[in-house]
Amino acid sequence: MPNRLAHETSPYLLQHADNPVDWWPWSTEAFEEARRRGVPVLLSVGYSSCHWCHVMAHESFEDPATAALLNDHFVSVKVDREERPDVDAVYMEAVQAATGQGGWPMTVFLTPDAEPFYFGTYFPPEPRHGMPSFAQVLEGVRGAWTDRRDEVGEVAGRIVADLAGRSLTDSLPAADRRPPRPEELHAALMGLTREFDAVRGGFGGAPKFPQSMALEFLLRHHARTGSEAALDMVRATCAAMARGGIYDQLGGGFARYAVDATWTVPHFEKMLYDNALLCRTYAHLWRATGSDLARRVAVETADFMVRELRTEQGGFASALDADSDDGTGSGRHVEGAYYVWTPEQLREVLGEKDAEFAAHHFGVTQEGTFEEGASVLQLPGTGIGTGTGEGPDPDTDPDTDGVDDAERVASVKQRLLAAREERPRPGRDDKIVASWNGLAIAALAETGAYFGRPDLIQAATDAADLLVRVHMDWQGRLHRTSRDGTPGANSGVLDDYANAAEGLVTLASVTGEGVWVEFAGFFLDTVLVQFTAEDGTLYDTAGDAEALIRRPQDPTDNATPSGWTAAAGALLTYAALTGSDLHRGAAESALGVVTALGGKAPRFIGWGLAVAEAALDGPREVAVVGSQDDPATLALHRAALLGTAPGAAVALGAPGSDEVPLLADRPLVDGRPAAYVCRHFTCERPTTDPEELAERLRV
User: Fold this and answer.
1) Judging by DSSP bridges, how do beta strands 621-625 and 649-653 pair with one another?
2) CA distance 85 to 100
């Protein structure tokens, strides 16, 4: 019989709706029930594409004996961290403070007042590798709650007091609440250089994550300063990722991270946010260098998002699972089953000769690079220890014998992809998250504009329309999620407003439709009113949001830009388009945290550093005036969009347009379309020459 989760909309919660555990969603009623019964609360936090969440569910939450123990002695609450990032953040901070590490599934035991007193992540069904079994943990917590209730209460009280005493604002001296100066951004560059893996690309060791936000900072730093070292790190990392197993060599798109330092074996879940951010990174790398590899990966990643993640309502689903049915009829779900290949499987699809070619091209061996002799497809033999990390693109360059390998590779990929489509597909988390759709809108709009793909611009426009039509209420407030065209019950958090605004101002710059700037302004006004403290620091939840044991506040980037740094970027661009000193001041105040943290932990505040580069450059304000039916206007507009000046804000409109203040009082020049390049609304003479405009937008 289904439990209470059957009435939820979250795909993750619905995965647990048939568990024998008597789950509750996060709610006041759940804690009231715990108080009425005099039992503790088990809080279990995860997300639908989380591999170890699935494992613990199968091992423990589907087990009748474990469920009986939970039902008799606990109130069990299940939370989708992607729906409730505020709940996740508060208790993850407690887990990390207590244990020194964190992750999902997150397992926390709470008093009926929601105060945490015992923590963990995954617990196995039997004692293993020094970990107690989940049943042992439950019995231990039950015993402590029954026999040492006062002690449990004291522990919970100390934890809550410790969390309440952690004030980020107090750690930022007033003198540091300003945007970084050039020397501080150089110090961040030096920090990334020390952590850069010069042999394999990327930063740090295993597991190795795509650092898209740090890469964007490096691209902007190169644009502002001409630093070849910054550009080389981007080129090497992007080449290594694109040729590694973290990139889907058949269908495009990136997995969440590599479990090793060589980008060979990924954790196979594919997230919308990773692909949106990396699509934009590769598009910007192409803009800076003209790299064929960067262009191919940007377009393939955009196509992956539209093909695999777009929903009927025009938004973009959150993720594809890492696991899928292994296809043997056993019903067993295996991580990576959809993506990996053996030599025998290649022969079955391609025949002997092409299978041998494909095995060599994609690094498929008899021993394999993954489990049970299977291999993750990659493009081996292209080591990056050459400075740039970028040689010929093996998917597009013919070989020296005159055989068109590009044509043969395309044929092999097409046949393998068709065969893969016949395999059981990974599950899709089809909820729409406002924040991540904002990232996708920005990536698709720019990629479509750069590479002549109006279909991608239309996909971005459809997603923007969904945010305004479904996620935004009549007060201009955002719902964080929707599903099947129906908004979820959870209010938007800071990164929803900030990334939605970022997507909309980017879409406006591409389409010339000023209404998107207006909607971005609604969202950013909410940021100023509901999320900004008197001293200019930012909180992750609105001032009128549900009160938790601590109001979350985290400026550091994780898998996505933090709400704090994303807000700084969107505020800065909006100010450039509108001339608003209020929004400019808020952006500069928010960048104070980058001054404090950029030199110490540049990998974890990369987007803030990228925004700081834009602020230091101006950012440039580019107004292109002319009819969009005139090829001369379109040539100027393209030159503006392809300018590498960090964070340049572009507005496009007809003469006399007042949709975007940057366009106001910008006439044609001798009856011809013209472009005006400004900083802080102080403008150079207008130009009608696209080449001259392009030169002005090179730092």
Assistant:
1) parallel
2) 20
